[in-house]
Amino acid sequence: MKISVRDAWLSALCYADIFDFPLTKEEVVYWAPRRILGRLRRADFSGLCQTQTIGETTYWALRGRTRLIARRRRREICFREKWQQATTAARLLRWIPSIVCVGVTGGVAWKNADQADDIDFLVIASKGTLWVTRFFSTLILDACGFRRRPGDTDVQDRICLNMFMSERTLSVPFHERDLFTAHEVLQMQLLWDRHNTFSRFIHANRWVKKYLPHAWGKKTQNSMRQLADKTLRQGRISLWPKSYHARRKTFFASRLLDLVLRFESCVLRWFERPAKIGQLWYMEKRRSTEVISDTVIRFHPVDARVWIKLKLASRLRKYNIPLDKIFYAS
């Protein structure tokens, strides 16, 4: 995709502006739809965007939108409580052996949620356990008072289980690959995973580097770093001398836990078909725009891709930037 540095910079700001989210310079580079190398001068964007420095942080926004900086800082304070709520709820889901990854998506993942907002979860299930995983996830979070229920008006800090994926198909379907989905993939924040599922999810969707090359590079580096840190914590590699027996005991304990979890997941597969039939029957009169298949269950009352594309087009038009070049990397 050939695009000038100016257009890449403005495109990143335009996309973030849809969500009332000014960016720092590092974030603009991170979310730019092309690689930006070298130094950039504010004079190059005179009359197109504005900056404001608070403390040691300089924020960039489209012209006339610097008032959003104060809103972003307020939302960052809200994020701390929401993240704590998310980690607490995610720990409960560890009891379900068929879950191999839990992540936060949506506004909370971008530290851009208001106090009254809920928290979106993406759950990845082991092969052949998609529906039974959803059943037990809903049951546990509902029983503990964490889940957002259909029809709730007060959804503050509630967990919205709006997407389940099977590890059998971690890559996004070809017809959904665009800038919107690339953002959703790379914005996801990991809460916990098993069997390096998060790293496999990122690499299965390496097509996103065509849309957001900087973000893709950083995300893969972070996922590899998290994998290395996890390996060290599990005791499979030691930077310091350790007794042979201690290392062997830690290794076998970890392997035994993996085998137990895999066995329990196999048992749950026996209940997959009745769980699917029962939930589809319950959802029959309530279905609207859900996406349901053998590998994905996705609940979104409104297709965000549609309105985000329209708002992005209106912003890019002001700077004579073609939408298709940015949204579809054409």
Automatic annotation (TrEMBL):
Superkingdom of source: Bacteria
Annotated protein name in UniProt: Polymerase nucleotidyl transferase domain-containing protein
Organism: Candidatus Gottesmanbacteria bacterium RIFCSPLOWO2_01_FULL_49_10
